[in-house]
Amino acid sequence: MNFQAIKAIYVFEMARFFRTLAQSFLSPVLSTSLYFVVFGAAIGSRIEQVDGVSYAAFIVPGLIMLSVMTQATSNASFGIYFPKFIGTIYELLSAPISFFEIVIGYVGAAATKALFVGIVILATAYFFVDLQIAHPIAMLAFLVLTCLSFSLLGFIIGIWAQNFEQLQLIPLLVITPLVFLGGSFYSISMLPPAWQTITLFNPVVYLISGFRWSFFGVADVDIWISLMAIGIFTGICLGVIWWIFKTGYRIRS
Amino acid sequence: MPTVVSVENVTKVYDSGFEALKGVDLQIEEGEILALLGPNGAGKTTLISTICGITTPSGGKITVAGHDVITDYRAARSLIGLVPQELSLEPFEKVMNTVKLSRGLFGKPKNDAYIEKILHQLSLWDKRSAKVMELSGGMKRRVLIAKALSHEPRVLFLDEPTAGVDVELRKDMWDVVANLKADGVTIILTTHYIEEAEAIADRVGVINQGRILLVEPKEDLMQRMGQKRLTIELQDAVANIPDALASYDLMRSGDGMALIYSYETTSSRTGITTLLSDLQKAGLQMKDLQTRQSSLEDIFVDLVKEEA
Ligand SMILES: Nc1ncnc2c1ncn2[C@@H]1O[C@H](COP(=O)(O)OP(=O)(O)OP(=O)(O)O)[C@@H](O)[C@H]1O
Ligand SMILES: [Mg+2]
């Protein structure tokens, strides 16, 4: 293991983040506040409680997940796409590092950034609602796992993308809808039965449900199924990355 | 001299189906400066990329200090520094940080004093806190060199290091190269300019259409370059070179209408005067005379002809 190299990539990537710290900090705070105003205050005043939790509190886990998933994906995809785009990837390819060290460096940095955003949102949420976290360790574990797995997904997208449009395509076309339809702002049980069944094919449902369980101790689906889902998702991402490594897909001609 | 980089029968077929390297053999000796000359699209960058791990060879074997670049890539690559042809740098990054990143990527522990030394050497110290995008093209080229040197390579590849570089910087660059050579670093550079090879190389390799056509000590090549040709056009065609002229280095043109005499400009006697009088004695009538310096291009043409 070339730990120096992993550290070098990580530090370099984090520097990009710290350069725009205000921006990295402000945009999640602002958007979270907006969500609270719109969903929590405006809509929440009409919805009393969901699963015995006030609506404003109920949406907190979904809100965090929404941001964390999109941030992790876009950070990681951009992180590896940019060197490809400007040509600095030559240095990664000619350095005495393995593909997995590259993955750890980039994915680690992207996941850290997403985690940071998640925590900022959580902190912001405390200003708006009274929150109690039932299972803090499980909460943190879910958060970290989500950051990691979606950063892996982002990394794959960044390798696959050949232009900026493609880079935006998956987050925009797949992740955002899945997250919105994944019960971020509602409980699955609030849907008509047919939709409840369809929703179960949405992998994000399991993540949000599990995460919400760690807050309130109630969930749409069994917590173990949630854990399994995130495990399978991470496994698939790792598998794709292994395949990329084996074939040199879109990195080494 | 022991071989430090060994390239054996290496081929490269790009995904497009284009065969950019057609069985390249090249032994690079430790501590030498090798200049690779060749026209656009000859395969210079492809060859370097294949040695450095940026592209994978389609066939053949490459070792660096005995380490296979595929199976033992860590050991092989950690010896190599690469200055790419393109000015590829993170635009928003500070010069210092991008150089430090390179050192880290190669697994070397932090060494600020060494980095400072390199930046001074390349006259970049004043720019260490500037963003890359604020630099001129020549400065960016130097940042690339600093990055390549940051991890103390034993073999340095410079892919057209002097493209877009002014005379003064070129001189500075050769000073850096000379210092590296003094430290025992092996240097491979590509160029389109024979003068550049002449200025610093120990050996010169010529590559064209994915094949190495020759690798020779610079002196030998320069001597060939110093050859001139005298073309003597004749009144009447000759079937063969008359015996009386057998002692001269003469060639008959295809149609027998001309004789071509090669001679060294550097030697004290060219032998032209005696040749011309002997020609007359042999009863050949001259129509016209023409001399030409053989250029790199002639050498290319000759080599390519030999290939065919
Ligand atoms: N990624 C690629 N896919 C397909 N063909 C390629 C690729 N890269 C290079 N080539 C082709 O391979 C040949 C050799 O290219 P290469 O860049 O090695 O030439 P070069 O000798 O470095 O030329 P130059 O002096 O212009 O830098 C060219 O014909 C080029 O078009
Ligand atoms: Mg080139």
UniProtKB/TrEMBL annotation, chain A:
Keyword Methyltransferase (UniProt): no
Domain of life according to the entry: Bacteria
Transmembrane portions of the chain: 21-43, 55-82, 89-108, 114-133, 140-161, 167-188, 200-217, 223-245
UniProt topology in membrane: Multi-pass membrane protein
UniProt keyword annotations, A-Z: Cell membrane, Membrane, Transmembrane, Transmembrane helix, Transport
Compartment(s) of residence: Cell inner membrane; Membrane
Entries under PROSITE patterns matching the protein: ABC_TM2 (PS51012)
Keyword check for Transmembrane helix: yes
Coiled coil: none
Domain called ABC transmembrane type-2: residue spans: 19-248
Entry-linked InterPro entries: ABC-2_transport_permease (IPR052522), ABC2_TM (IPR013525), ABC2_TM_bact-type (IPR047817), ABC_2_transport (IPR000412)
PANTHER family, per the entry: INNER MEMBRANE TRANSPORT PERMEASE YADH-RELATED (PTHR43332), TRANSPORT PERMEASE PROTEIN (PTHR43332:SF1)
Record family assignment: Belongs to the ABC-2 integral membrane protein family.
Protein's name according to its UniProt entry: Transport permease protein
UniProtKB/TrEMBL annotation, chain B:
Residues in ABC transporter domain copies: 5-234
Keyword Nucleotide-binding: yes
UniProt keyword list: ATP-binding, Nucleotide-binding, Transport
Signal peptide: none
InterPro entries: AAA+_ATPase (IPR003593), ABC_transporter-like_ATP-bd (IPR003439), ABC_transporter-like_CS (IPR017871), ABC_transporter_ATP-binding (IPR050763), P-loop_NTPase (IPR027417)
Pfam families: ABC_tran
Keyword Nucleotide-binding: yes
UniProt cross-references to PROSITE patterns, sorted A to Z: ABC_TRANSPORTER_1, ABC_TRANSPORTER_2
GO MF annotations, alphabetized: ATP binding
Record protein name field: ABC transporter ATP-binding protein
Species per Swiss-Prot/TrEMBL record: Parasulfitobacter algicola
